[in-house]
């Protein structure tokens, strides 16, 4: 339960935010349950009547380039997109969002042909939405992550690789669209009615469709055949882009950038948590770049 007499500044901030929208909160016991996730900082709040999600803003999230105020603004801009939760409120330390009922897809379901077709349609719908107020500053993100990596893990080869990405020109843009940028099974829900829903919008931004799709492919280790089928749905079935081969090539151009961002993210999370699972996740990426 949330202790209404707590002197913890984070709890006080959460209670203040809750009380602004639920005036009886200080007289009503709320339970708080941490939810699983690699980024951390997400909690289920419940008081027997209401359920909602609280997402914290602390040094862990800040070092990962997460801004709950930006996430709140993007969710407000998605009010007409029924596959995202509604934003409730935000302050300096917390974001409150709607709790959505449903279940995350099992691995076998996620990689099934039918599910990938349904997901492609959802991605197309998002990419056709009006743009967000936030554009992804990719090179600034790379520079930001580099500041929070353990200096003892910065090898000469790693520093050369970092200079390469800081100095190399970005792939030319095909088409800028709003994108989620963190699509995987744990960020998806299948609602009781069968609708597909997208959660956790902290990395959402306007970006090139090639970068957005390459991020999805790499993060979920889709095979070449699976990628081609997804792009076929995207281009031929849902008519989101006319040049299928051009988009496929664009995704390949963006892939090293995506993998480098993923590697840096895992390094920052290891530096924060000292949890070796992040080094294990990053090892295939280090091998991809010839760093180990």
Automatic annotation (TrEMBL):
Q: What is its EC number?
A: 2.7.1.89
Chemical reaction(s) catalysed: thiamine + ATP = thiamine phosphate + ADP + H(+)
SUPFAM superfamilies in UniProt = Protein kinase-like (PK-like)
Entry-linked InterPro entries: Aminoglycoside_PTrfase, Kinase-like_dom_sf, Thiamine_kinase
Please give the family membership noted in the entry. Answer: Belongs to the thiamine kinase family.
Q: What does this protein do?
A: Catalyzes the phosphorylation of thiamine to thiamine phosphate.
Q: What is this protein called?
A: Thiamine kinase
Gene symbol here is: thiK
């Amino acid at each position: 339960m949330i202790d209404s007499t707590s002197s913890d500044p984070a709890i006080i901030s959460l209670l203040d935010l809750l009380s602004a929208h639920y005036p009886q909160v200080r007289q009503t016991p709320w339970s708080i349950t941490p939810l699983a996730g690699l980024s951390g900082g997400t909690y289920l709040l419940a008081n027997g009547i209401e359920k909602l999600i609280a997402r914290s803003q602390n040094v862990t999230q800040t070092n990962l380039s997460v801004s709950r105020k930006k996430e709140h603004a993007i969710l407000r801009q998605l009010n007409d997109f029924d596959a995202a939760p509604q934003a409730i409120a935000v302050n300096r330390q917390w974001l409150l969002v709607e709790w959505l009922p449903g279940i995350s897809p099992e691995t076998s379901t996620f990689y099934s042909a039918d599910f990938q077709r349904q997901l492609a349609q959802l991605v197309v719908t998002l990419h056709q939405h009006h743009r967000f107020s936030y554009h992804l500053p990719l090179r600034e993100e790379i520079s930001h992550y580099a500041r929070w990596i353990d200096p003892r893990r910065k090898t000469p080869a790693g520093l050369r690789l970092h200079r390469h990405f800081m100095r190399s020109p970005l792939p030319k843009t095909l088409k800028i669209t709003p994108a989620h940028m963190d699509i995987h099974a744990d960020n998806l829900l299948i609602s009781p009615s069968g609708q597909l829903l997208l959660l956790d919008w902290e990395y959402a931004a306007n970006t090139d469709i090639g970068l957005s799709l390459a991020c999805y492919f790499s993060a979920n280790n889709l095979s070449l055949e699976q990628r081609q089928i997804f792009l076929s749905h995207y281009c031929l079935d849902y008519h989101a882009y006319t040049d299928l081969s051009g988009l496929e090539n664009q995704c390949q151009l963006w892939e090293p950038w995506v993998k480098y961002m993923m590697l840096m993210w895992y390094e920052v999370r290891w530096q924060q948590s000292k949890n070796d699972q992040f080094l294990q996740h990053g090892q295939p990426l280090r091998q991809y770049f010839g760093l180990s």
